[in-house]
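[job 0412] stage=fold_complex status=start
inputs:
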Amino acid sequence: MIQVGIIGGAGYTAGELIRLLISHPKAELNFVFSTSNAGNKISKVHQDMVGSLDLEFTDTVNPNVDVLFLCLGHGNSVKFLEANTFSDNTKIIDLGNDFRLEKDKVFNGKTFVYALPELQRDVIKSANYIANPGCFATAIQLGLLPLAEQGLLNNDVHINAVTGATGAGTSLSATTHYTWRDNNFSYYKPFTHQHLGEINQSVSQLQDDFDSEIIFMPNRGNFSRGIFATLYTDFEGTVEEAKDIYKAFYKDAEFTFVSDENLHLKQVVNTNKCLIHLHKHNGKILITSIIDNLLKGASGQAIQNMNLMFGLEETTGLQLKATYF
Amino acid sequence: MIQVGIIGGAGYTAGELIRLLISHPKAELNFVFSTSNAGNKISKVHQDMVGSLDLEFTDTVNPNVDVLFLCLGHGNSVKFLEANTFSDNTKIIDLGNDFRLEKDKVFNGKTFVYALPELQRDVIKSANYIANPGCFATAIQLGLLPLAEQGLLNNDVHINAVTGATGAGTSLSATTHYTWRDNNFSYYKPFTHQHLGEINQSVSQLQDDFDSEIIFMPNRGNFSRGIFATLYTDFEGTVEEAKDIYKAFYKDAEFTFVSDENLHLKQVVNTNKCLIHLHKHNGKILITSIIDNLLKGASGQAIQNMNLMFGLEETTGLQLKATYF
Amino acid sequence: MIQVGIIGGAGYTAGELIRLLISHPKAELNFVFSTSNAGNKISKVHQDMVGSLDLEFTDTVNPNVDVLFLCLGHGNSVKFLEANTFSDNTKIIDLGNDFRLEKDKVFNGKTFVYALPELQRDVIKSANYIANPGCFATAIQLGLLPLAEQGLLNNDVHINAVTGATGAGTSLSATTHYTWRDNNFSYYKPFTHQHLGEINQSVSQLQDDFDSEIIFMPNRGNFSRGIFATLYTDFEGTVEEAKDIYKAFYKDAEFTFVSDENLHLKQVVNTNKCLIHLHKHNGKILITSIIDNLLKGASGQAIQNMNLMFGLEETTGLQLKATYF
Amino acid sequence: MIQVGIIGGAGYTAGELIRLLISHPKAELNFVFSTSNAGNKISKVHQDMVGSLDLEFTDTVNPNVDVLFLCLGHGNSVKFLEANTFSDNTKIIDLGNDFRLEKDKVFNGKTFVYALPELQRDVIKSANYIANPGCFATAIQLGLLPLAEQGLLNNDVHINAVTGATGAGTSLSATTHYTWRDNNFSYYKPFTHQHLGEINQSVSQLQDDFDSEIIFMPNRGNFSRGIFATLYTDFEGTVEEAKDIYKAFYKDAEFTFVSDENLHLKQVVNTNKCLIHLHKHNGKILITSIIDNLLKGASGQAIQNMNLMFGLEETTGLQLKATYF
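[job 0412] stage=fold_complex status=done
writing structure:
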């Protein structure tokens, strides 16, 4: 069994990793590190674990685990790896944004691979250090990359996306108070969201002459899980030609599918799927891309990457029952 | 007291009119017409009326009321007025879309005025027949008209807006079932929403050389009331210049205000307000416009128009307590 | 105009008082005291006030206001009144629980009257110092008092009630985080809620031989506003007899009504109403009582009491439009 | 592989069975019967199946499947079995209430076993025809049976329970319209819910002198999934003694666990678990019991029963990832 360590064990993404790993047939939790919760049962924090897991949080790492997941606030992965040493055989998957950009990918002699499986599955298979993509970045890239690969992103791309409250993390804040968020709607970081960096990087990797603008409006929805993203840009072909491009791009994808029907968010909640829909109106292609921000947008994709790195079936432990309602 | 008749009394907008009129100091309900509910107490349908109103629905109209509100499905106002005759002194306010466009405004010798008070208050004051604006159309026009008046809409306008489930009417449907809509998100009628007609008409009325495209993505949110609209387009000035333009345009508005702070939907829910926020990034102005779809987007604005038509203070009966939570 | 001061201006109940007072025809805000927000616009905290109120929070009290509302955490009203002196002509309405019980009602020579209008309207009219009832206590008493007055509470009373997230106050906590509360349900303080004291006190005031137990299960619902309470106990009469008792008891009540139909919470949200429904099964009477916890359960009832104390119509400024959706 | 047929394939419980069966390692869908949807892809109705299942609904049954799940409205299982014949080797699991009571259990020579595994696992293992328990009945029995087995239910039991909107089925109705149910609360069938029959039957099976009353208030919550039930009755022992009784009763249970901490509904949503919490106050024991109404309360328990009937590990295909947020 693959021995797994989790750092930053009290947050949302760590909780999801734990939920996935307790029934993963090839991996097992070796330790879950959380200084603030050390000594407490994991089920005191991730309370659905009652009856499922007896393990306690620890403040001691095992430096010889096979794989380490970093679930820390942005900027803290670097600090943690500077302060703690692991075996050369320990693979590392960082769920933060410390190593996602080309300029940040080398750290202490380790090279982190940007790990969107649909973009570069084979590179991931042989990687030891992984920068797991951001949640908005995953939904948006999966909506754009098929066009980029064909060199068809030649005009500005307009993106509107809504994320659930888990996207803001576990810390208490005015905009995650129930009375504020219930039946509410708002935006944040208009045009300047930090995920634009990795999105532009991947688009340019596939279409090196890309020089249009990606205009991105992120919104806060009054739900807990999921990202619903709509993207449009100029496109000369028919919607059938677009579907052919997307279906070809995703022919080997285990979790990303093109739907012929309109989408709604709950089709993917609590799954590792991304669903894509295409619609054409006048000269514009409208692309809808939906994911669960904590799964395909974070912990599910991290397990997917672990599976690839360890030579397992990509879907191992990720055949999840959708909540749907 | 102004004697009021309501046609189509079982729907959302009729319910809101009733809620507003029971405490309006200058108007009173004369009859509420609903063939399917005739003889039933109004409080059997609009159940918050228990203790507030003893009136029953009727299937007989009083042709001599001072003002008639038509709360019918789109296309049915024409049919109703063909089948029923009212006094020449009866003013008519249609909440449907039968008379909103220039090509539709004359019916049986009556000329309907498009009644967005911020656009043409004085015209409304002397009108006898009113086409009350649509909900999305109200939010979007209030976001665009100040720029149009200055002739500054010279590029495509990109609009994303989310509406609550009351926007879809009272009829039962898959996408208004609780288990579907709860914690869900989706879009409908991309780029082709029927309100684009009245929006383009008003913009062109203020800026006659307008020939850009208004690109509108309407979405279904998982809340019951309200519209949150974001609009962006190219704008050369500073955000301060934009604020000056908007504040000048709305200096006499009783319900539309420019906010210096970011907005969230619940600031306006259960009020007749529209709040506007302006933000500049690179060459783009981002305009946020929020309303309650059933009040400023329908019944509240209808009462506002009634007040104007009868020479009352515009705010009479419309100083509503926000729900806020 | 009645000059009003509010202490503890940043909380939910203060916000509701402000929302009510800005359109109250006989009262006006003189000051809103909040040490943590002094100098900030009120609309920075109560953000629906944009366009409605320009006033700032202050950390200085005006000791000569006509009426003072205390919106402080439980126990802090005593502390505040020890540290601050007001005119002998200043009436005081405390929304906390410092003065609700007989043993606590005299403070510094002032006698606080427990002010549930349906229980003792005339006493309130001549009072200068008011202890405003708790939210659960209001809903439950209005469900029980008609039977108590008839001496008919002769067996245990079983109560289950659900309150919205505003019931827990504005402070951030695990159980008011959106991701926790959304689509969730839980209980708290089973059988020991602090409102039992005032409930038992009022029941015994009307039925002095009352010696049964009131068994109360309070729950947290996933909504923001409102209390839905069901109460049952043994009752020998028919449901018609019960209705007669309740209708007689509430014949002069301006806000409490008996409904012949089953109730649902949103019938009263954003109103000052209490609706009561009665149902009989075998030997038990089932009483449903619903209120808006922030209005009839707090700030609305406080204004109702102010109206009574100043000789105004009880409903002044309280004819509120229900949100309903 | 166990060949599975599903009758009534468009409803909630059929959808959940499909979600569970597509990743069950020992069973596979042979056909999904739905006359109204025959010929349509299953993913047109259960839209999360896009990318997961290509099968179509059929209006033809395969009479030789190994197991048949009946997901029909109450009363329709009898009608269906009268009109359709299956192999003598076909096991049948009825999710309706046609065969749950002793008086109904024999049909056409087949004897249906009431299949709550925690009550009579061994009987289920050798059964061919199963009456799957109701959702409320499951939550409530799991809360009461340990006391019944000890003969300790000697006083009235007071139960309050809240269910999600999926409890009402897929049909469109006023009380499942989003605008009605959002942020609302109500009760239905007070004291007379149809599940009382099977609850009393099981309690009497374990405690044959049981002659107290079970008083049950069912409520509609504004969430989609789950049942939160609180039950209290007189109990003379300590809470530790109660815990010992419950832990002993559930020592072999694979899905039912006693929690030392207070419970909240989302701990079990999208799992097959039941969590139980015990609290003592004065002479009363308060029992909380929570389940997902569609899983442990319906389709999950049906698969659990299938596993037992076919000699599989009870947990096969039921190690589900909780949604939790």
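[job 0412] summary: Residues 135-291 of chain D form a domain with the Dihydrodipicolinate Reductase; domain 2 fold (CATH 3.30.360.10).
[job 0412] exit 0
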